[in-house]
Amino acid sequence: MRIRRALLALCLACGLAATAPATADTPKNMVVMAAMLDEFISLDPAEIYELVPIEYAANVYDRLVRTDPRRPGEILPGLAERWSVADDGRTFTFTLRRGARFHSGREVTAADAAWSLARLVRLNKGPAFLLTQMGFSADNVAERIRATDATTLVLVTGERYAPTFVLNCLGAWAASVLDRELLLANEVNGDLGNAWLKTREAGSGPFRLVALRAGEALTLEAFPGHWQDHPAMRRVVLRHVPEAAAQRLLLEKGDVDIARNLGPDDLAALRANPDVRVRTVPAADLLYLGLNTRHPAFAKPAVREALKWLVDYEGISRHVFRETHVPHQTFLPAGFFGAIDDLPYRFDPSRAKALLAAAGYPDGFSATIDVRKGYPGQDLAQILQANFAQAGVRLELLVADNKQTLTRYRARQHDIYQGYWAPDYIDPHSNAQGFAWSPDNGDASPNRLLAWRNAWDIPDYTRRTEAALAEPDPARRRAAYEALQRDFVRDAPFVILFQKVLTLAERRGVEGFVTGPINDQFFYSEIVKR
Questions:
Q1: Which end of the chain is more exposed for a tag (fewer CB within 10 A), N or C?
Q2: What are 11-41's pLDDT values in tens digits?
Q3: CATH for 61-196?
């Protein structure tokens, strides 16, 4: 079977090479990446909600401000060269730089920015929550987000929030500034240009769209009129190469400069190749267990802590994940403002047994665990089953597809859920709200995030999460999240296990591909070839 797979991958790679232009040792002014391009549904930033499309928006569009992947929590000027927050904590005033231009040649104005943010709210597609969570609605957005002149935008939030939270949301892909006149010229039946923009662009970013060929390639070219970035690469091409082995072969031949979806075996081989450099980047995805506190055992904090001593974190990392995940036990991933690297738990069955006995379970107990079919879910669950058995905790694996396991989880019908959580945006509130906030634990609650799904009634954590969201001082806000995580890791009904790691392989001499923990911080402007 392995030989057949290898031959298939080889044939696929050869076929790709045969049907594509001869790009071995790709041109000095072009970078080619092997990636997965099967997520593209729309190119409209107000509708995009998939990883590589978000990355596309990060390079084709500008926002008022930018988040810094190198320094978590830092906000950089974007189209706005400066901003201020009034004493009320709700009124933000942005001064836009002069001379920034859309790809159409039009100058970017505050009216374009205000219209773009209002459009996000009015279209009310998935990403609209970035603004609606701050109190903006279709009824009030025209009043609360407005241009007072060509370079001044005033935004008034519904409540007082930490300025860093507001700015992080405005630095996200969905808050991209669009060419208002171009979209209105292509509006159909009041859709604000949405149908037109699904396959086109209206940006001002350092790159502009050349072509997207579904299932084949995305091609961008440098925009010479950009206000700041002057990319060294005239073109950036992302080629759709779904097979990891095919990506590796193309990289080794020089047909691509960067490969992004490689398996552990491919990475091990590439590390020995002097023409290739392999580097790892922490991704924001967290792999965790959710413990439903409606299960009598999981209602007891000592039992929840016992399970954290029953995971062989290092063994699983070595034998299941190798280079693709690293142990991580707190709810903010590395690379986020406020993240801590505490790893208080290790595999210690004796300590777990003592905690279980003190909680009234000297002989352990039984529970089911909902597991997504395939790798890595089943591999991990089988090891956890063996780990937990050492303290008498008997796990029954319920293996199903992702839709089925999520449906049970969202209905609070699980004992243990094994799965991933990925934040929607770079601010720490995205994860704190998910794991440590639940203002209504009732079955009819409108807020059904992770704490609610595990029936964790937490008025104190909810209050602290809301206080951190409103804290205006960055140092105190950071301290609030650090303290929240240290308490959380001890008594929460979550066993956070691993953080995903993105591993890139690049041809020697290819440098400057900036990568943060989320795709919204993948930037092409600094890529060079030595």
A1: N
A2: 444 444 444 444 458 999 999 999 999 889 9
A3: 3.90.76.10
